[in-house]
Amino acid sequence: MLSIRLENLSHTYQRGTPVEKTALHNITLLIEPGMFLGIAGRSGSGKTTLLQHLNGLLKPTSGCITFNGSPMDGHGMRDLRRRVGLVFQHPENQLFEETVCRDIAFGLSGTGLSPAEIDIRVRGALEAVGLGETFLNRSPFELSGGEKRRVAIAGVIVTDPSVLVLDEPTAGLDPRGRRELLDHIVALRRERGMTVVLATHDMEQMARHAEQVMVLENGSSALFGTARDVFRDVGTLERVGLEAPRITILMSKLKKVFPEIDDGIVTVDAAVEELKRLHRRQGLRWRDHDERCARGSVCCREFGSPPVGPQDEDPDGDGIYDACISC
After folding, report:
1. Domains, in order of start, for the chain
2. CB 242 within 8 A of CB 201
C-alpha cells in the first residue's frame, strides 16, 4: 500500500519568463491507502497539474511530495509510475497498437514477465473493466468511445498499481457510459484495495463515490473535507463556479418546509432513506415502489386524491397511494 503526502506544494509553469503562471499554490494533502479522493474545480483550476505530481510527471516548484514517507527522488521513476497509475483525460487518444491485447500488454514491457504471465495479466485487466476475451484480438480503433476508454484504463491497471489516478475519465461519454465506467472503477477499488484519485467538475459523480473531496480555485484549496461537508457549503461552491448535487439543493429547499430534515444529503439513495425516516416519524407507511412504473424508482405519496396512473394502488382504502416522482 502507498500513502502520498503533499506539503505546501506549489507549481509554476515557465518560471522566470514573462509568461510564467502559478498553477498550484501551497497545497497540503494526505492521500491514505484505500481512500477515494475527489478533486473538483473548474477548467484551469489546477486539477491536472495536481494529478501529474502524484506519479512524478511534474516536480514541485516549492514544497514537497513524499511516498510512504520518502521523497520522490528516493523512488525509481519507472517503479513509481507502475505503483501510481495515471489515466489522462481522453486516454483513448493514446491507443496505438493493432489489437486490444497488444495495447494493454504494452504497459508490461521491460518487466521481465513471461508471455504466459503477461497474458494472464492482460485478460484480468480486460475483465476488470467489464470487457470480455472477445475484445482481445479486435482493433482498438473499431471500438465505441466508452469501450476505447475502458481499454485505455485496462492498459494502466495491468501493472497492478496501488493508486489509480484519473483525470476527467467520463468526459464526453453519454450518461450510461459514465455510470458504467465509474461502477467498474468502484469495483476495482473494492476488489483490489486500490486507492482512487478522481478529478472532475461533475459534482453528481463526486457525491456518489468520493469519501474526501478537495475543491480547487485558481490553484489553491478552497474546500476540503468529507463529501457531505463540502457539498453543504453551497455558497463556496457557487463562488468557485461549481454546483452542489441537485439532490442536495432539493433537500436544502425541503428543509424550509420540514425543519427536521437532514439537508446534508448528497445522493438520491440517501435522500430516499431520509424521506422514509421522515414519513415514519409522522406515522405514515412507505410502500415499495411498484416496478410496473417505468419512469423511475423513487416514490412520493399522494394523499386524499384518486390514483394518477395504473401503477397506483390503494389496497387499504385509506386514500394513500404510491406514485413515481417522475410521473
Report:
1. 4-97+161-239 (3.40.50.300), 245-286 (no CATH), 293-327 (no CATH)
2. yes
